Amino acid sequence: MSAATELERRGERGARGGLDPRTAPAFPVAAARALGDAQLRRNLHHATEVIQAKRARVVGEMPDWQALRDAGEAIRRHTMEHLDRYLEQFEERCVRAGGVVHWARDAAEARGIVVRLVEDAAAREGQRGEDSSAANEVLKIKSMTTEEIQLNPALEAAGFRVYETDLAELIIQLGHDQPSHIVVPALHKNRQQIRELFRREMNLPELGESPEELAEAARRFLRERFLRVPIAVSGANFLIAETGGVCVVESEGNGRMCLTLPRTLITVAGIDKVVPRFRDLEVLLQTLPRSATGERMNPYNSIWTGVRAGDGPEQFHVVLLDNGRTEVLADAEARQTLHCIRCGACQNACPVYRETGGHAYGSVYAGPIGAILTPQLQHMEHAQSLPFASSLCGACYEVCPVKINIPEVLIHLRNRVVKRRTAGLRVVGDPEAWAMRTASTIFRSERRFRAAQRMGRMAERLWERKDKAGEQWVTSLPGPLGGWTATRDLRAMPKETFREWWERRGKKTAQADAGNGTEVGDE
Amino acid sequence: MSEARAVVLERIVKAKGASGSLSEVEQMWERMPRGYRVAGERDRASVLELFEDRLRDYDATVVRCTAARVAETLRSVLVAAGVRRVGVPERIDLALPEGFEFVTDEGMPAAELNEMDGVLTRCGLAIAETGTLVLQSAAGQGRRALTLVPDVHVCVVRARDVVETVPEAFARLAATATLPTTFVSGPSATADIEMTRIKGVHGPRFLHVVLVEDYG
Q1: CB of A68 within 8 Å of any CB in chain B?
Q2: Would an 8 Å CB–CB cutoff place B81 in contact with chain A?
Q3: In B28-39, which positions are buried (b, 16+ CB within 10 angstroms) versus exposed (e)?
């Protein structure tokens, strides 16, 4: 592990103990720091290149890929339009099948519900008296939703040991790190870094660095816990309104262990995770694995409905989480953000994410989808720099399996951020807002625009430098304008604008016509 | 709890307007575009070839045999896998070979399942295009833990249960959609280390498929 990464890790942990958009530094600040970490960037480049190539190959196998994207988009749009009906239906069917459904308005309420359910389950386990130590432990399946609500610290504060069981999440947990990708949370770590971590945290000084050995170490580390711990918490990929069923998509089998072996299972899911019918999975289970990990199908998909005697948990709870999602729903232009099925393809395709990695976004939702989802989940009060963390190249839209037009939403949110910032008197203290407002005043009048051009030409003369070819450049501007020239040179304004030339040419031509056309005004 | 429910549902309606009745909503669902392939176009022989190819691509092994030779084929697969104590679900309804200890799962605790060398089951449905076995809590397929905890899974698949595409599989599953269901595509794997697919983490690290061509 490079010293820079180690320092970065400690600093971030010390500073905020989690990816919290309310306290995270603005994207440009965090990104500049990430860009200084050469190891991080090598890891990112390698991983995102591998995954993009795999995705392209298996997407290319599908003659009906665009039709699947269209259908996926239609399903998600239809679901959001009728979200209340489908949630009610899901609840009714899930309860009928023996599940218990809870609703949470925000993260704090969801945490409270889960902690109480875990405490109740632990008390039941204590009464069974088989293994008192296991009653204080909880298994976790990788879940961005539980990261979003910062569930683990809440469970730990209530006296529970939480075991993350997904390999990447285990790497994150053992390293006191933060997830940097929706699908592959430890994407920023390479095999050597993971080996060092496992050697230290699992007490395996002889451990090699091949991925096989590392996976074997994780298998041994967790196997005994899977067999012992009676309580598990999961997220969900899909909630099926028609049947009341839940679907979890995974690779390793840690998910199946958690969904099958414990006596109590608690699933935390955003209200956006619902799909109308069982059959809708025939679309999403084709597009999700190919987009997420570049596999035709990921190794395991589990679908279960309530509880079933003799197969799996005896107690099953679902916590339906709002936490800002209804506000996203209320913005008709940004509503499509909720269509996301968390495949991470936009992250891998994004030229910004590929350089900065996920931590710079200051949220568990990084990359293009994070840039639109995070500020909205924060009521546009935090993470306001994220809609600007994009070059609007459109690669995210191209790969999105449900066709979320992320660039369109980014621009819409930029608008909202600027409107908030420039509302009322706050413009006085904000140079950018002041400059934009002034520019708007100038551009609205031809007279003012010409005057500004003349003034600009005079003013910049002080900073003009001639290059070898004799061209005039402005390479360094004073004060706050220096930010622009710090990374790029500005061509000097031409001595004459097109409009001025055109007018002068018109006069000359008129004169020439008058004087027998010996000269045509040209330069 | 019920207060949170009312508030969240109210927020949703306020955000996007009221929905129609459930039957109106269902009619709208019916009208959604589904321009993708809902059925395959290959002949049976090439569907089975595709199935084999996709299984092997994800590190599973495949052996084909006729119904009369299932026991014999299973023997060689189990021997090659190096297993002796083999868990089986109730009502497996297969001719089992001699020379192995088959333990019927009647709700074995997880620790006991962990002592099995392997597990032998059938499966009701498989998808060629994705190399997927679909297991449900049904006769011969066992409960979910049975095919999860042991390290070797041998699965007998009837050729007629292999469909070409994912939508064909969902059409077949419609009637049993609420049974616990697991889609298995190759052995347990992870891509969490440098996005390289590595076989075998927590689920069975070895998946062997016996494809029976003329099973009744």
Answers
A1: yes
A2: no
A3: ebeebebebbee
Q: Do B184 and A299 touch (CB under 8 A)?
A: yes
Distance CA(A20)–CA(A382), nearest Å, equals 10
- In order of A49, A86, A390, A411, A465, the CA distances from A371 in angstroms are 21, 28, 8, 11, 39
Q: In the Cβ-directed half-sphere of A449, how many Cα atoms lie within 13 Å?
A: 8
Q: Do B145 and A311 touch (CB under 8 A)?
A: yes
For A417, the token pair is 């951020």
Determine the pLDDT at residue B193.
85
Q: Where are the alpha helices (DSSP H) in A315-423?
A: 325-330, 345-349, 353-356, 367-377, 395-399, 406-422
CA distance A409 to A520: 51
- For A249, the enclosing helix (H) or strand (E) is strand A245-250
Give me the pLDDT at residue A9, please.
42
- Residue A58: HSE in the Cβ half-sphere, 13 Å Cα cutoff: 22
Q: Please say whether the beta carbons of A435 and A388 come within 8 A.
A: no
A-chain CB neighbours of B167 within 8 Å are: 282
Q: What are the 10-residue block averages of pLDDT along chain B, 216 residues in total?
A: 90 95 94 96 97 96 96 98 97 94 96 97 97 96 97 97 98 97 94 82 95 81
Q: Which site among A303, A316, A338, A403 would you substitute to test the B interface, given the most B Cβ atoms closer than 10 Å to its Cβ?
A: A303
Asked if A453 and A443 touch (Cβ cutoff 8 Å), the reply is: no
Q: What is the pLDDT of residues A468-507, one digit of tens each?
A: 888 889 888 888 788 888 888 888 888 888 888 998 888 8
In B116-175, the residues whose Cβ lies within 8 Å of chain A are: 127, 129-132, 137, 143-145, 148-149, 166-167, 169-171, 173-174
Is residue A291 within 8 Å of residue A345, measured between CB atoms?
yes
- Asked if A283's CB is within 8 angstroms of B36's CB, the reply is yes
Q: Does A184 contact B195 at a Cβ distance shorter than 8 Å?
A: yes
pTM over 0.90: no
Residue carrying structure tokens 């360094």:
A476
Query: What is the spatial distance between Cα A43 and Cα A48, in angstroms, rounded to a whole number?
Result: 9
pLDDT of residue A424: 64
Mutation target to probe the B interface, by most B beta carbons within 10 A, among A77, A84, A301 is A84
pLDDT tens digit string along A62-90? 999 999 999 999 999 999 999 999 999 99
In chain A, positions 240-279, which contact chain B (CB-CB < 8 Å)? Answer: 240, 242-245, 251-254, 256-257, 259-261, 271, 276-279
Cα gap B183→A381, rounded to integer Å: 42
How far B10 CA sits from the closest chain A CA (Å)? 9
pLDDT band at A134 (very low <50, low <70, confident <90, very high): low
Cβ-nearest to B185 among A68, A80, A298: A298
Instruction: Give the model's pLDDT for residue A8.
Output: 40
What would the pLDDT profile of A181-212 be if each residue is shown by its tens digit? 988 899 899 999 999 999 999 999 999 989 88
